[in-house]
Each structure stands twice: as C-alpha cells, then as structure tokens.
Amino acid sequence: MSTDAFDVVRALFSAINQNDADAAAALYDVNCQVERVFPESGEYCVGRESARSGWARVMAERAGGLPGGFRFDVSRIAGIETGWGWVRADWRSLTSSTDGGDLRGAAGYSYFWIEDGLIRRQRNIARELPPERIGEPATPSERRYPSKPLVGVGAVVLSDDGKVLLVKRRHEPLAAQWSLPGGMLELGESLEAGVAREIEEETGLSVGVGAVVDVFDRILLDDTGQVRYHFVLVDYICHVRGGSLAAGSDVSDVAWADPQDLDGYHLAAKPRSVITRAIESAPKEPKS
C-alpha cells in the first residue's frame, strides 16, 4: 500500500467507485474520525469499522449514476499549503436508486489528514447539484497564482557506493525541507538537458541522465482553495560524471544519504517511493 497522501486519496475514491467497502476501509486509520461523509448518519463516525459500515450502507442503498456505475468524478487532488499531511479532493457525485431512478447529484470537496499512509480524518463539504448539470465542466475559480501547470524535472542521483543525493530547499515550496534535486524546465529545453542543468546548478555535479523513474503531479492550494502551485514532475535516474559537490543558490545544503537511513531527512512519502523505484530499476550504464 502506498504511503503517499495523494495516492491514498486516489485509492479511496477508486475503491468507492468499485463498490468495495472493505478496500475503502483498509485506507482508514483504526481510530479515524470521519465527518459529514455518510448521508443521514449524523455528523461523525469514529473508527475504521464505522467507516466500513458507512460505506457498505451507502453502497447498498444507492447505486453509482455516472458512466461505469461510478459514484464520484474527482476533478482535482491537491495538497493544502498549511501542511503536507492535508489533502483536498474536489469532486462531483451522481447516485441513483437501485432501479436506476431517483437521480441525486452533488458537488463538493473533501479534506483529508493522512499519516503513515492511512486516513486519520476526513471531512466533506458538499452542495446539491441538479443531475443534468453533473456533466458540465466545473466553473474555474479566479486565480492569483499560476494560469497553467508548470513542468518540472528531478533526479535520483546514485553514487557508485549506492547512496542517493539529497538537497535542502532554500525557497518555497518545501523551504527548509530535504528533497530530490531538480527544478523547472526552461522554454526550448529538453527534459534530459533540463535535469542535467538543474543538478549542476543545485549541487555542482555533472551527471549522465538515464531512464525516467516516475511522472506525477503536485497541486498545492492556499487556505482559500486557490491553486498556488501546480507542477507536473518528471524524475530521472542519474549518475555522476564529474564536478564537485556544493550547495547552489537555490538550496541551503546537499548530502549523500544512505537509502536505508532516510528517516533523519524527513522525506515525504513520494520521494521515498521514487528513490526505491530508481534503485530497483537502475541501469548499469546511463545513456548519454
């Protein structure tokens, strides 16, 4: 089971859309607190078993009304700027009675607090939406930040003795936190050239760029729900070819870390999983 908070939320909605109450319940902490999630069942339920019972009841009483029998169409999963454990999912929902009638639509969002790969808290904020409007595109909110996603590149740089290169960020997002080196792609720059440039700028090292490890997105919201950061990130395996290790202007520190001893760096779940994947799939020779 993934411990990445975004993946946990994706897995929950997938389990619900597949009418699998047991799979959904497995994503909750044993002492979870769930608020305003289950219709007509009160404000709160506490505990994994209560969450499982709630989803089982909902699935038995109402059928999914979206294509494929799905209940939820999730338009966005994003982190909350106040902390990496908080995730917000924006969605629309359509259900019907078991005979296909009595359509009920809703639109809203869910807040999740996720720790150690499990949902500790969940709270829904929803409003009724006429069923005929479920298929309409969501009205975009006014934005004070980016107008479109930004493409970033990152790297799992592996040393000959099996260590991985980490940097401590100087600026937001992730200021003062350890992460994988990388940055934003420049106009007209290839992905491979971009990751090599970012590594040299941040760490002083020249690298050979290997295979893609992972491609994923990260959306971060401010406290009003506006998109402050939206990155599409492409991570590569890289190997050192030269240079001298030194912190560049965008980072405050650099370090070679043992992949088995990352707890002291407080890495988020996603870079940890990317490191593991890179080590498992690292080629013997990087491509030029």
Provide a descriptive summary of the structure in words.
The structure is a single chain. The protein has helices spanning 5-17, 21-25, 48-61, 191-203, 269-281, and strands spanning 28-35, 44-46, 63-64, 72-80, 83-96, 104-115, 118-128, 150-158, 164-169, 178-179, 182-184, 205-221, 227-243, 251-257. It is α+β, with helices and mostly antiparallel strands and 288 residues long. The chain has 2 domains: 5-133, Nuclear Transport Factor 2, Chain: A (Roll), CATH 3.10.450.50; 150-281, Nucleoside Triphosphate Pyrophosphohydrolase (Alpha-Beta Complex). Strands 1, 2, 3, 4, 5, 6, 7, 8, 11, 12 and 13 form an 11-stranded mixed β-sheet that branches. A 3-stranded antiparallel β-sheet has the order 10-9-14, with no helix packed on it. A hairpin with a 2-residue loop joins strand 4 and strand 5. Mean pLDDT is 86; it is low at 139-143.
CATH overall fold name of the largest domain: Nucleoside Triphosphate Pyrophosphohydrolase
DSSP helix fraction? 10-25%
Provide the β-strand percentage band: 35-45%
Which residue ranges are poorly predicted, with pLDDT under 50 across at least 5 consecutive positions? 139-143
Q: What is the ordering of alpha helices and beta strands?
A: HHEEHEEEEEEEEEHEEEH
Helix count from the secondary structure assignment: 5
User: Which secondary-structure class do the elements indicate?
Assistant: alpha+beta
CATH class designation of the largest domain:
Alpha Beta
Average pLDDT rating: 86
Q: Distance between the terminal alpha carbons, to the nearest Å?
A: 35 Å
The total of beta strands comes to 14
Backbone shape: elongated
